[in-house]
Design brief:
2 strands; Rhopdopsin 7-helix transmembrane proteins; angiogenesis; two-stranded antiparallel sheet; single chain; about 400 residues; 10 helices; mainly alpha; C-C chemokine binding
Amino acid sequence: MSGDNYTYIKMSDFPTSSTPTPSLDHCDYDDWYPSFSIIPSVYVLAFLVGCLGNSLVLSVYLASRQHLPSPYSLIASLALADLCFLVTLPLWATYTAMGYHWPFGQPLCQISSFLTALNMYASVFSLSTLSVERYWVLTGRRHSGHHPLTRCPSRTLWILVAVWVVAAVLALPGLLLRSVREVELDPKSEDDPGSVVLSCQMDYSMLVGAELEEAEKDRAEVWWAAVLSLKSTLIGFLLPLVIMLVCYCSLAQLLSKHFGHGPRPDRRRQRRLLRVIVTLVTAFFLCWMPLNVNKTVSILLELGFVPYSCSLDQALLAAHPYVTCLAYLNSCLNPLLYAACDPSFRERCRATLLTCCGMCRRELLLILHSSLFMKLLHSSSVFSQRRLPDSL
């Protein structure tokens, strides 16, 4: 359930898109099950915290966008990407709680997988663009004396459009290749007849020629799984990591000189914004690195580039649900990191919440007053009707 996510079902049941398949008869996977209670609980908590936090980030941005620097539009883009994914977390939580049984049908399987991949690519591209933009500003303003994007808001809009279009194109395999398939689980004992689950998984059969023999088809599907999995790791993780490292290593040599000049409030604002971005970048890579390492080693093991080992195979399989959970938590962490690193964001959040509370209070008072008025009017009408016969 990552960018090219795959289903966690023990390997003796069926090979999945990026889990090792050699020598299955020599390994015992019966005891390798994830926690079907802890992981769904974490998903639900991440959904609640993440939706509230990222909605607040977008509300703050929309309320203050005229006064915020252009980099905050990319931070809003990051919040939107997280929200697109977070709405699918209840589905993934249910899927996990039911022992990786997908009861929601194929369309939701495809859409949820697409939004998961879209979140990963849109998030990392937004962070990469933020890093390049900060490098451009803090190195280029020494010569140009102005912010390159502030004077050209349309350029920021085009950058955002490009980020989302590229992310959507790269996420298409999750939409086009996902399918819901029946999977027969091996019986746990002689008296157990076994069971069948509906698995939301990648289906590479449409990429493989129908004229191939069964063994060749299986091998071709393995290679397609490897190509798409490595694509997501290279484009969605390693390449952005290299870009950001280059930007921040270069900036580290210029920070003291750059922040030593100019008005003090401007220097303070630049430091604060840079601290927020560096914190977001660090959190993203710490959350997503274990999953990408797990996927890459699994692919190399499956293709034979790493000597096959049952213990390594079992460790990768056992760790996968938890490193996936860690990657998903990144979507609810970002608003908390904004609040921890940026005092101005906390002030804007407080102002936004007070405004919302004030509006809700006024609406509630209007409703109560209206209700009270209607009751008084009704009571007056009843009283008049009761008094009418006496007056006659």
